[in-house]
Amino acid sequence: MDVDFLLIRKMKQGDDDAFEIFVRKYYSDILKYCSYHCFDTEYAEDLTQETFANFFAKLSDYRYKGKTKNYLYTIAGNLCKNYYKQQKNLFLQEDWLSEVESLSGNLEEKITDRMMLEWALEQLPDEFRQVIHLYYFQEMKLTEIASALEIGLPLVKYRLKQGRIRLQYLLRREGMIHEPGSTDEKV
Length: 187
Description:
Elements: H1 3-12, H2 16-37, H3 41-57, H4 68-92, H5 94-102, H6 105-123, H7 126-137, H8 142-149, H9 153-173
Helix pairs in contact: 1-2, 2-3, 2-4, 3-4, 7-9, 8-9
């Protein structure tokens, strides 16, 4: 039997040890995911805890289908999107903008680059975005991704390649990366 299936069954029966084992099993992966999606480390920890709280709050309705980790990523992704929307609103407030202007331009560029990357990733179809995230941000091997997503290794390779191509296209179109051989110097 699958370990997650047994853990979920025990958690539904109120076994505190099962809850602890479950959180320990997935906490670091969900924290990495949340840390990538928000600028504040403490807030990433809060989002991670909120992910588990949301999962446990709806545990009685949860039907195990063998993709518990993906479900946790979905919850975390929704929480991160809400965080991103809040941060976007901060950019529109003049007080915050004046604080950013007083900081070094390097920080402003980093924030802009990160926002553009987030935007570009959001434009990708879910199956490409998921593989790119697991490969680059969760640092999973291709075989691990295939196992986690329950798909074949050739499909993982295809999605990774196509995701990269589409991401490059989007970033080129927005001027974030330039064609090989082109220069930014004005004559």
